[in-house]
Amino acid sequence: CNLGESFTANPSVDVSYSDAATGARQIKLLGLSGTYVQMLTENVPNLRGAALPYSLGYVPGPWMQSIQVSKGASSVKNGYESTTGQINIEFLKPQGTDGVRANVYQDSELKTEVNLDGSVHLNERLSTATLLHFENRQMDHDGNSDGFMDMPKLRQYNLMHRWAYVSPRWISQLMLRGLHDERNGGQSRKHLAASSSEPLYTTAVKTNRYEAQWKNGFTLNADHNTSVALMLHGSWHDADNIFGRTEYDVTQKNGYAQLMFETDITEHHNLSVGASLNHDYYDEHFNPLGTLARAESTVSKETTPGVYAQYTYKLGEKLTVMPSVRWDHSSRYGGFFTPRLHVKYSPNNIVTLRTSVGKGYRSPHALAENVSLLASGREIFVSPDLKQEEAWNTGVSLGFNIPLFGRNLELNAEYYYTDFVHQMIMNFDGASGQHTLRFENLDGKSYSHTFQVDATYALFSGMTATAAFRLNDVKCTYDGSLRQKPLTSRYKGLLTLSYKTPLELWQFDVTGQLNGGGELYDRSSYPAYFQLQAQVTREFHRFSLYLGGENLTNYKIDNPVRHAHHPWSAAFDATQVWGPVTGAMAYVGVRFKLEKL
């Protein structure tokens, strides 16, 4: 699996297909697009801008050691871009297991994945690791017989090489990574209703990405946890996109540096201060609908230095208060402050109260971050004066750890409110006429209310159940009218059951999701639907076997591609995907582990 498929059983994060042409998955957190979630790799900002549309497919599941999801205004240490939360990915560490691991996967849609990683401890302090990933699917699948492939043909090569040096006072980690990703979709054959002279509508996305990351931490005083850290990251991302006659090529170069100092002043007081520098370079070439008269080539640059301070007061396990602020100066938008406050209060072992409030900012890149919206016949207009996005996020959660029948019931209730001051909105078929898409500045209100309750309980030895329910109220102003945000489900229900046998030789996992209905671009409604996933794992001494299935209810959209019979018309649209495009899918895999070769 990959990062996107890892959130199947997560009650807070929604994952869905962004269109019916490229197979790209997108996430939503607190009812809002994943563009407002800050992606981190080992606490360094990453997978931004042009990498965002397909980023969930760039992180192989077997490479991940852990995933941390934080909702609401997060720490200012990692920058100003977190509005609805952060997702941090920790990869397998060279200083971890010494040996070789492999994972081979095959599904009923003829997708093959091969993962191989190995680490070697050269001595007590120095270790190295290499991680390889290959996935391939060349099946021409058209389950609803509309002439369009339900999923693109896919081929990806992914490589990571790591070094780690760990001493009592200095920790250094170097990561080098390269990726090549190809996605080819569109019409698999000429539909009977199409003219014989009409060419096939095809899509092609070819991506090359290279990145390097170097992290250093120095301990100055172990008694006070005084340390200084230097983190460097650079990436080069090149993507060539073809959607029918529309061509869009983008190259993004990014450089990031952060210097951080942290110390425990006393037992109750901690201070963290630091400075960061981020530079983005975008080179974009856009030829909409093959109209060379409107072809555009633009180069944009943004350099943003910033400083921050975060103070933490901690009174044992009962009270934590963390105010923080950062100031950044963008070469495009000028200077801006990012204040944030977090409070945690636990009067006893049963109740925990958390609150947070803070601002988030983001520099929008209309086409680079929303390239899948090019899979339609709409005319696209991008406002030349898009503002920096700015929003307040406020959240409160109440958690209970209740002893019940000899086990603990974990119960949580939370509410988050996001209010936009400035926002880039995507206005479909608005005042300028039919079959248009305009990227423009918000003129009016835009907000999200999210309320969620969830509970986890061990029903008996080895069996754990999690149930969750969430309500979303997400609205935005389009052409002077405040309306429900399109393609946003109003509610979600989740139930997961996991059972391990006493010797942990067998594991059974089942997840059911109820996805609430919502609105499409034309304000028509789509219905709620239910999905079911299941997996069985058998552990052996050196390896494990797993067998499972996704979308076992076989629910899929009847008409994922609008006007599929006439893909060259203005009414053609493959972007209004609100549910599964493909039916039930089965898979099988084997994991292998050999330590200390």
Largest sheet: 22 strands, antiparallel, barrel
Percent of sequence in beta strands: over 45%
Helix content: under 10%
The termini sit apart by 26 Å
Structural class: mainly beta
Q: What is the C-alpha radius of gyration, as a whole number of Å? A: 24 Å
Low-pLDDT regions = none
The count of β-strands is 35
Tally of alpha and pi helices: 1
Mean pLDDT: 93
Q: What is the 3D form? A: globular
Features:
single chain, 1 helix, four-stranded mixed sheet, 597 residues, globular
Description:
With 597 residues, this protein is mainly β. Helix content is 1%, strand content 61%. It has one helix and 35 strands. The chain has one helix spanning 366-369; strands spanning 13-17, 25-29, 32-33, 37-41, 44-45, 64-71, 85-91, 99-107, 112-121, 126-137, 153-166, 170-186, 202-221, 226-243, 246-264, 269-287, 296-315, 319-330, 334-345, 351-362, 379-382, 389-404, 407-422, 424-428, 436-441, 446-460, 463-478, 481-484, 491-500, 506-515, 518-519, 525-526, 529-539, 543-550, 585-595. The strands form five sheets. The protein has a 22-stranded antiparallel beta barrel. A four-stranded mixed beta sheet has the order 5-4-7-6, with no helix packed on it. β29 (491-500) and β30 (506-515) form a beta hairpin. The longest helix has 4 residues, at 366-369.
